[in-house]
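Figure 6 in text form: structure in, sequence out.
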């Protein structure tokens, strides 16, 4: 592209002339049409692909997820906690650690090439249970893959709810904490991570710690939100609940 240096006094006139010449340039194709590749056919026939391929696969995955949720809900809180506490973390292995979660499961569009460099992939796919709902303390203790729908189904019948309920049922607690969970009620309660009172983290050398804002791991407590899983494996979180009622009064004030 040519750059025109235009003296200030005649700039109006000259720039008009330039834009005219540019218009005529535009009529010629910018680059020759490229040959169609298979992706173009995918896009062109996307209705067929979506209806006969994507939807059935998604439906099957949903059924599996649903059955997993039902299986988890059939267990008592005690049983779920027992299974959670049975997990052992190997402190002898050294090397880069990451979760075994595949990129196609996640909502985000992030390049996960860094996972190829990992020495150990830790499969956390079973960490999808609501471990406890403490009505006295108004705290839910959940594993990172628990999603919004699952946690609502447990707490709403108790007249309790998360303070920040991110809108999509599939969003997981782990994702909302280690990246940026937010919803309308954040105007009052802050980000999703601001409603968390404790994190259970497995550190890089295999040690499980519980970080709260006033124990020895308080630095970790403040560093975990938005850390994108870089500081350790989040294996449980204790999240504040708020009381809810069946109906709510809304006052409309025209402005
Ligand atoms: C929840 O609140 C409703 C009324 O708002 C009440 O009828 C119901 O008994 C409450 N449930 C529990 C578990 O407290």
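Output sequence:
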């Amino acid at each position: 592209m040519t750059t025109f240096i235009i003296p200030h006094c005649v700039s109006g006139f000259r720039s008009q002339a330039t834009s005219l010449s540019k218009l005529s340039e535009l009529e010629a194709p910018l680059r020759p049409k490229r040959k169609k590749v298979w992706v173009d056919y995918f896009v062109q026939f996307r209705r067929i692909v979506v209806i006969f391929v994507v939807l059935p696969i998604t439906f099957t995955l949903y059924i599996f997820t649903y059955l997993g949720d039902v299986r988890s809900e059939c267990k008592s809180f005690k049983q779920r906690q027992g299974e959670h506490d049975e997990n052992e973390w190997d402190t002898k292995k050294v090397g880069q650690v990451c979760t075994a979660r595949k990129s196609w499961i996640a909502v985000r569009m992030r390049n996960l090439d860094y996972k190829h460099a990992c020495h150990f992939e830790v499969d956390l796919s079973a960490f999808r249970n609501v471990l406890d709902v403490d009505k006295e303390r108004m705290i839910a203790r959940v594993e990172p893959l628990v999603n919004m729908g699952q946690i609502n189904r447990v707490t709403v019948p108790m007249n309790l709810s998360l303070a920040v309920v991110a809108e999509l049922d599939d969003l997981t607690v782990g994702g909302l904490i280690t990246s940026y969970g937010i919803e309308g009620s954040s105007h009052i309660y802050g980000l999703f991570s601001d409603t968390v009172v404790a994190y259970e983290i497995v550190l890089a050398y295999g040690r499980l710690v519980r970080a709260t804002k006033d124990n020895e791991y308080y630095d970790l407590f403040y560093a975990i939100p938005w850390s994108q899983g870089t500081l350790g494996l989040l294996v449980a979180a204790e999240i504040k609940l708020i009381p809810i009622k069946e109906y709510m009064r809304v006052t409309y004030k025209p402005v």
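Caption detail: The pocket of 2-acetamido-2-deoxy-beta-D-glucopyranose is lined by residues 158-159, 245-246 (CB under 6 Å).
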